[in-house]
Design brief:
It contains 16 helices and 10 strands. By secondary structure, it is an alpha+beta fold.
Length: 392
């Protein structure tokens, strides 16, 4: 019974492996947020809310478009991880440059598509770089490399010489004798000692070239990622168009005229807003003292309103202190913030006003001690406020 159950389980595992495709395995490692980040950072769909993208991605389940978007994001993710590889600070440290070289080679292995994007000099280097490893003990090799004219070797390699031709025995005499004089290697032939030193130089040379490669990728990160995305433009466009449709259907529409009522009765007026994208609107609020410029930002569950007080008349209607009001104008004005909770009623919202305030002393002439902008983090005493669509 145990024997039969084992083979039955084994058979099921084989079937499951066949059922789950490579795309499904990739999908398990790439989340929607990663796809959205790539689209918003590097393409033309920056103003669309994340939630609309998520709805669009849900609607693309089991489609070629989603598979291609996952493939694209895997490439960008691999490229960015390669770009972010820390470059050694000290190429005299053998352990450090060996670890770096291995890390780069391991990261490059799955990125065979990268050769289509990088310049030919890097393609030939990546393809032609043979794995070399000096048999010399690390501490001895480090001393030998420091005493040898490594820069001479590097110059020869850079101009196209292979590692045999680039190695100058006469320029490496000191390094040669450091290896030869050690008890461990005193019986080696001259050619064996030169081989140890030459391969150590080549190891360092390859590590330095990989470092140059990484630095070039970092410097041209935007270009390379856009080159990756270029092959996926059709699928990016499909996603962005679907996301736009969902954004239109689900967006909070603030365009129109609103009646603003402050629980203290000090900040009442009529506000007019117009959307400039799915999550941002701008406009003005009309008060008895004049116009206040207004911005509105729609977050996932909240609306944030920012009121900018720039003019003397607007500020002085609250302070009734002309000298102080003029001082605030000279400092660029003040700000108040309102946070409204999003509910099912799109014509009425309630929330909290965070007003600005000023600390001053005028017992011996006006001295302004502090101007506090009305933000969620710091403000005057918060109080309740509502906005309702005019005529509703």
């Amino acid at each position: 019974m145990t024997h039969g159950r084992f083979f039955g389980t084994y058979f099921v595992l084989i079937c499951l492996t066949l059922i789950f495709s490579a795309d499904q395995i990739l999908a398990a490692t790439i989340g929607q947020d990663q796809i959205i980040r790539v689209i918003k950072e590097f393409t033309f769909g920056k103003d669309i809310p994340d939630q609309a993208y998520k709805m669009a991605l849900d609607s693309l389940k089991d489609t070629k478009t989603l598979r291609k978007l996952i493939e694209m994001t895997v490439k960008v993710d691999g490229f960015e991880k390669l770009c972010n590889t820390p470059v050694p600070n000290d190429f005299n440290n053998v352990n450090e440059f060996r670890a770096f070289k291995k890390l780069i080679k391991d990261k490059l292995n799955p990125l065979n598509w990268l050769v289509d994007l990088v310049t030919p000099k890097w393609v030939s280097f990546i393809n032609d770089a043979k794995e070399v490893f000096s048999a010399a003990r690390i501490d001895i090799l480090e001393r030998a490399l420091k005493e040898s004219q490594y820069q001479n070797y590097k110059t020869n390699r850079d101009r196209g010489d292979d590692m045999i031709t680039a190695y100058d025995m006469s320029a490496s005499t000191k390094g040669f004798y450091i290896i030869r004089s050690s008890e461990q290697y005193k019986n080696l032939s001259d050619s064996q000692v030169h081989e140890m030193l030459r391969t150590g130089m080549e190891e360092r040379y390859q590590a330095e070239k990989y470092a140059q490669f990484i630095m070039e990728l970092k410097a041209n990160r935007q270009k390379y990622i856009k080159d990756i995305l270029r092959n996926y433009n059709e699928y990016i466009s499909d996603l962005v168009e679907k996301a736009k449709e969902f954004a239109q259907k689900t967006m909070i529409n603030l365009t129109g005229t609103w009646v603003v009522q402050d629980s203290a009765g000090r900040f009442n007026g009529t506000m007019t807003l117009n959307h400039i994208d799915y999550t941002t609107a701008i406009g003005t609020m009309q008060t008895p003292g004049g116009i206040i410029n207004t911005d509105a930002y729609i977050h996932e569950n909240q609306i944030e309103l920012r009121f900018h007080f720039y003019s003397f008349n607007v500020i002085d209607q609250y302070l009734h202190y002309p000298e102080l009001s003029q001082h605030l104008v000279s400092k660029g004005g003040v700000l108040a913030t309102v946070i409204l909770e999003i509910t099912g009623n799109g014509d009425y919202y309630s929330g909290t006003l965070y007003p600005w305030f000023v600390r001053y002393n005028d017992s011996e002439g006006l001295v302004v001690k502090e101007i506090v902008y009305g933000t969620v983090g710091e403000s005057g005493t918060p109080r309740s406020i509502t906005i309702s669509r005019q005529g509703r």
